[in-house]
Design goal:
Length: 142
Amino acid sequence: MFSFAKRESGADAPNKELQKLKRQDLLELLLEQMREGDQLEATIAGLNAQITALTDLTDYLKQNLSEKDALVDQLQRRLDLKDKIIAQLLAQGRKLPAELAEMEELLAVEQSAIETYISENYAAAQTTAPRHSTPPSTGGDA
């Protein structure tokens, strides 16, 4: 609306131009500057609200990130423990075939000992036991 272009050299040129304006023009210029000031204040208030919202969001995200980090650490410890248990189980599993073979050998030795004992005792029982020509009767056939 109004131009404050320098027509004269020096710092007094805008002041001289303002002095030439009528009161009505000065009031209009003042109103326009007040509107611009109000718009700038509203813009600043909006930007401040955005800054506050972003700060709150940042704090919220930091808190959630800290909680997630704590959960990740806890899960990592549990996973490490499970890995250790799995390694122990695998080590035990590798020993099982050898232990099974030992047990099978022991079982075979025990079965052989049992068979020897039975056969020796059965043979001894046969030689020392009296022989009957007829089986003893049950008493029901007379």
